[in-house]
Design goal:
seven-stranded parallel beta sheet, Glutaconate Coenzyme A-transferase, 16 helices
Length: 433
């Protein structure tokens, strides 16, 4: 069918699922946005939009479309700020199970894929994630073929033609780029300190953003070798480690010799790198992110960013007050999986301060989180915390010991005030600080 013919199947009240990341459709999206005959809302569900979505910018979009999202990109966040998007809480590794156990059948699922191969499979490219489970639950499965998408290996990274109802052939836009941000000097200082804790043979997971990518570069500069990669997201920093010959996967127990990830997001160079690479495999997210799968590998090192942390070690990574920013994603599951791994380590990284739009500087380590702020990683799970002022381990520490440790890596300009607040709220005994 044409995209317009496929979009004509949508009715008011339908749940239409766009899938994840680079697997979200483009031609179908434009065609659906052009359906000005829709008299009631269509419920759309997706995650991590990498391109602007036509349905969000369409005329009278608020009346015709309701956008639900498992994890916000900058595009989704701006839509949320405008009142046009809503978040669905999710531990990312649970997504396939959620679709199979708790999500009502999806009326229409449409995902972008590579062209059909000789065995009749449409490849999910760099967006394996939960697409297999999603398409199992769909009453109507639509594949939008993009011949410019990278084809990515993996034992379950595709759908057979016998399970597809509609195919939309397009010239394609290819895989989008996902900006990683330029590491700041502060990011580089944090990265070098984290890299000191990474040993030969470690199995890496890093998250999104300039800081985790900077950690990869610091690991490269430190000469660490014989690494494995078992990660949620494949990013440019991990690619550079692979290209430099530092990744062998020889010490892994799960996916030996393979770089394993569930989705890719980064530069044009990364999109080219993942195309038909024999040492790379994209697995469903329940195979990459559930803690028991993570901990099967020895020496897991998990590196993620957080936005704020209170003096007891609660990490807030997805919201600032009631403003939602990103999502839980895989952070908590990798923190837990890394801790349970033999010799594993998890790091939550944050610059010690942030500068507000009005120019004022505030501490990211706070006595108490702002009301409405979501705790992504509980204090019981947090292990290493890294700022530009040092790295501390909170595991096994009492509340007073945690307070003292976190104040030691807060910005010096805020340490006295944090100490005073800790005493006033009785987080520490008299004379402890």
């Amino acid at each position: 069918m044409t995209a317009e013919e496929a979009a004509a199947r949508v009715r008011p009240g339908h749940w239409v699922d766009y899938g994840f990341g680079m697997g979200q459709p483009d031609a179908f999206d434009r065609a659906l946005a052009g359906r000005d005959d829709l008299t009631g809302p269509v419920y759309l569900r997706a995650a991590l939009s990498m391109r602007p979505r036509a349905v969000l910018s369409a005329a009278d979009a608020g009346r015709r479309f309701v956008w639900m999202n498992w994890h916000f990109s900058g595009i989704d966040r701006r839509a949320h700020d405008a009142g046009e998007a809503h978040y669905i809480p999710l531990n990312f590794g649970e997504a396939p199970g959620l679709y199979r156990r708790f999500i009502d059948p999806v009326d229409i699922a449409v995902v972008k894929c590579c062209g059909r191969d000789a065995a009749g499979f449409f490849n999910f490219s760099g967006a394996c994630t939960y697409h297999e489970a999603l398409l199992e639950r769909a009453r109507c499965v639509i594949v939008e073929v993009d011949p410019r998408m990278p084809r990515v290996r993996g034992p379950r990274n595709g759908i057979h033609e016998s399970r597809v109802d509609v195919v939309i052939e397009t010239d394609g836009l290819g895989a989008p780029e996902l900006g990683q941000g330029t590491p700041s000097d502060t990011d580089l200082r944090i990265a070098r300190q984290v890299a000191e804790h990474v040993e030969d043979g470690a199995c890496l997971q890093v998250g999104i953003g300039g800081l985790p990518n900077a950690v990869c570069n610091a690991i490269l500069e430190a000469g660490v070798k014989d690494l494995g990669i078992h990660t949620e997201m494949l990013v440019d920093g991990l690619m550079r480690l692979h290209q430099a010959g530092r990744v062998t996967g020889a010490r892994k127990a799960n996916g030996i010799g393979k770089t394993v990830f569930t989705f890719a997001g980064g530069s044009t160079a990364l999109n080219a790198f993942i195309h038909d690479h024999c040492e790379l495999e994209s697995w469903p997210v329940d195979e990459t992110n559930l803690p028991d799968r993570i901990q099967a590998n020895p020496g897991v090192v998990s590196v993620n960013s957080t936005a704020h942390m209170d003096l007891q070690g609660q990490a807030a990574s997805e919201s600032a007050g009631h403003r939602h920013l990103t999502g839980t994603g895989g952070q908590l599951q990798f923190v837990r999986g890394a801790y349970a791994s033999a010799g594993g380590k998890s790091f939550l990284c944050l610059p010690s301060t942030r500068t507000r739009r009005d120019g004022t500087v505030e501490s990211r380590i706070v006595a108490a989180l702002e009301p409405g702020t979501i705790v992504t990683t509980p204090r019981t799970d947090v292990m290493f915390v890294a700022t530009e002022w040092g790295v501390v381990n909170l595991k096994g520490r009492s509340v007073p010991e945690r307070v003292r440790a976190l104040i030691s890596v807060a910005h010096p300009d805020f340490r006295e005030a944090l100490s005073r607040q800790a005493r006033e709220t009785r987080l520490v005994p008299a004379g402890f600080l």
